[in-house]
Amino acid sequence: MPVGNRLMRSFVEPYRVEGSNWKEGAEKSMNIPDAPVVELEIDGQKRKFDLDDPLLPDWVADNTLSSEDYPYDKKLKKKHYKKALEDLHEELVKAQYWLQESGQRVLALFEGRDAAGKGGTINAIRENLNPRIVRTVALPKPSDTEQGQWYFQRYITHFPTSGEMVLFDRSWYNRAGVEPVMGFCTPKQHEKFLEEVPEFERLIEREGIHFFKFWLTIGQEMQLKRFHDRRHDPMKVWKLSPIDIKALQKWNEYGEARDTMFERTHSAYAPWTVVGSNDKRRARINVIRLLLNSLDYDGKDKEKIGEVDKAIVSNP
């Protein structure tokens, strides 16, 4: 068992006594956020969702994979996923050598709704790569000093140097989604961002950086299921934040913010790639395929990489 899991279990086990719920004690010691019952409207029907109920409602469970018109009715089999991922990892190692030898730079942003699978996709890319060459950037909320800076400034300091790949787990696009929806920025700041970001990304393209913007999309029922899984799994409960819980009732607002973002920031030089991620396995494989197919590295084996699945990968 990984060290992190053992440590988490050491916090949780004291509360696993007969006749009690582990969350009752853990909520106090681990600062787990409250989760009130919320009223939702899904496909024209009003629903009540209790995140604390250990039983997932049938109206969620029966529609998770098919939500948001996902084209597959079954997840990719694990054996097929592992084989594809093994081939892709071999190609990623080749790409890593090419980066070091050529001095090329790669910058990829991973955005999407909460629980869309951004972190897992990044981990699938980095699993067998050198962490000094392929870095993840996941910034906390800005400090007082950063709040007084140009908005893009704190992100630029993490950009790749010669021979590096940097993967942002959320990025400057916070200002296009969570910040305006949750009231963390003003409408004026939001509009200023939308005006400036195309110019900012034009500079990235002119600098010669290989630049990717991925939006991982999930259906509402799938998001509810993943939130529910986190709430009732002592090893995953840390992933559930107060913002996640507040966002449960803002599905439409996030959708409107996303659509505005696509309209204002999708361009020929910095395009968005939308990846359906109700099935995380398919999403991870196709993100890696797109990355590899876009890089002109030595020894590329196109058969091992495979074709991007256009049923779940598209532009806005």
Structural class: alpha/beta
For the sheet with most strands, the description reads:
6 strands, mixed
Helix content: 40-55%
Number of strands: 8
Tell me the span between the first and last alpha carbons. 41 Å
Strands of the biggest beta sheet: in what spatial order? 4-5-3-6-7-8
Provide the gyration radius in Å: 20 Å
Tell me about this structure.
The chain contains 14 helices and 8 strands. The chain has helices at 3-12, 22-29, 58-61, 78-102, 118-126, 144-147, 153-156, 178-182, 187-206, 220-231, 242-247, 251-265, 280-294, 302-305; strands at residues 38-42, 45-49, 106-112, 134-137, 165-169, 210-217, 272-276, 313-314. The chain has a 6-stranded mixed beta sheet, with helices on one face. A two-stranded antiparallel sheet has the order 1-2.
Summarize the structure.
With 316 residues, the protein is α/β, with parallel strands linked by helices.
